[in-house]
Amino acid sequence: MPTANLALPWQTQTVMTKPAEDLDLIRRMQAGDDDAVRDLYALYGQRLYAYALRLTNDPATAEDVTQNTLVTAWHTARTFRGEGRLIAWLLGIVHHTAMKALRGDTRYLDDVAEEIVSEDQQSPEEQAQVKDERRWVRQGIQSLSPEHRAVLDLIFYQGLSLNEAAQVLNIPVGTVKSRLSYARDHLRGVLARTEER
Amino acid sequence: MNHEEQLIRYAANQLNESERADFEKHMAGCASCQADLTLWQSLANEVIASDSAVPAPVHLADSALEAIHAPSKLTRAYKSTAQLLRMQLLLMHNELWIGSAALMFIFLAMALLVARVEVLHFFVPMIAAGTVTLIYGAEHDPAAELTFATPISPWKILLARLTLVSAYNVFLALCATAGLLLILPPQALGELLLGWLAPMTFLSALALLLSLWIGTSNALFISYTLWAAQYLALTSVGEWFAFLTPWLESYRQFWNDPALLFIFGFALVLSALWSAGREQVQWRRSIAM
Q1: What tens-digit pLDDT sequence spans chain B (289 residues)?
Q2: Alpha-carbon distance A85 to A165, whole Å?
């Protein structure tokens, strides 16, 4: 059976942290060690920024969200008890911060995002070139709501289990599953529409 | 067995070896799972590819540290307020502080000499009102041009000066009250001070607003007249004015109602702050002419 042929972040050497390393980072942040923030970012920055960007779809907002996540992690390091993985805790902060940023931002609208897929915004020549399924998958994902994009990202890029994803999003596991099903059906619909063209 | 969950975990590479082998066996004979897997893998591949393609900006850790070590908003606000107060203290007339203290001392001495608290009750609000009419405007500001040229809003300047003068007036009133210990029992002082504060606030606010509108002398004349009017006893003038007595009674009650005085005083201060901007415009116009 074919599997993804890409280096997944949790499989690469740099991100293979042990719980002891995570706890050490947290203890150093609690002790006020600036370098702990730099080390934390070196380890997890890519994943945090990618998740923020996935939720916000805007690089500038994603930067703000990631920076605020580090600030929040610094100030709330005491509340991390090491019960789960550090990355899950950090992604939870990213999620909360990004959702707060999105609430204040009226640019995101489900209907508008839907139009990206359903309406022709390119010239006929461009459309003729766009037969690539990957492009439609990408647009299909982008046209999902941030909540649905979040679930896909947490499971497939961040490598979180369904339970961990549920904790990050602060929702029941059943809801994580139903969001995944919705995302799958949505993509199936998008692909079916492209085949009809 | 929930195949959808297995499919997701398979596509996400989260199955262990035996789970994986079992599921692959199942999939070999299940066309529906195979079709779904293709879809899940397209999704997974796209998510991974696009997330990996965007490098995280390198500066974020350092900018986060800058934000962590930056003084809090409260500290910044506190510092800028302290600076504004210090600056305005330097710009205001020194005579104001000495003059009002001297007047307060004289009236306290009078009150003690005649052993009448009413002397202070009458003069404390008047001293306070007098000082606030001298705090703002080109007429009183030795560096008005500089003041109006600064980027600080006029209402902030006025509020800073009003705060300084009001704090000083309350301090003087407290000192005078302490002086009354010579002729009064200590338990009477609290009520006495509260009795002064409300009229002092209202009369000062009124005088301030009027001084911005019609100048210091007019403001002093009107506010002092209004203050003194409550002490009129019109019935002594004659039967003709007897009809005014109920009105006068209500007027006296107004000056003795702390809640009303504070509410109206507050509204007048707000109007004065709003007027400060207009005052600046007028001043600029007069310079241009």
Answers
A1: 468 888 999 999 889 999 999 999 999 989 989 988 988 998 899 899 888 888 899 999 999 999 988 877 888 888 888 988 898 888 787 888 999 999 999 999 998 888 888 888 889 899 999 998 888 766 666 666 666 666 778 888 888 999 999 999 999 988 988 888 888 777 777 777 777 889 999 999 999 999 888 888 899 999 999 998 887 765 555 566 667 777 888 888 888 888 999 999 999 999 988 888 765 555 555 555 4
A2: 11
> What architecture does CATH give domain A13-106?
Orthogonal Bundle (1.10)
A17 touches chain B (CB under 8 A): no
Q: Is A41 on the interface with B (CB under 8 A)?
A: yes
CA distance A48 to A67: 10
The domain locations on chain B are: 3-53, 76-288
Region label for B54, one of left (φ > 0), alpha (ψ between -120 and 50) or beta (otherwise): beta
Place of tokens 């805007």: A58
Domain residue ranges of chain A, discontinuous segments joined by +: 13-106, 109-197
How many CB atoms neighbour CB B149 within 10 A? 9
Structure tokens at A164: 């961990």
pTM value is: 0.59
Of B11, B55, B68, nearest to A74 by CB-CB distance is: B68
Residues of A whose CB is below 8 A from B12 = 155-156, 159
Which phi and psi angles does A123 have, rounded to 5°?
-70, 160
State the Cα–Cα distance between residues B240 and B84, nearest whole angstrom: 55
Using an 8 Å CB-CB cutoff, list chain B residues near A68. Answer: 64, 67
Residue from A108, A103, A193, A93 nearest A142 by CA: A108
ipTM score for this prediction: 0.77
Residue A6 is nearest to which of B5, B48, B57, comparing CB atoms? B48
Q: CB of A87 within 8 A of CB of A154?
A: no
By CB atoms closer than 10 A (0-12, 13-18, 19+), residue B188 is middle
Distance CA B240, CA A173 (A): 88
**Residue A104 backbone phi and psi in degrees, to 5:** -85, 0
CATH architecture group of domain A109-197:
Orthogonal Bundle (1.10)
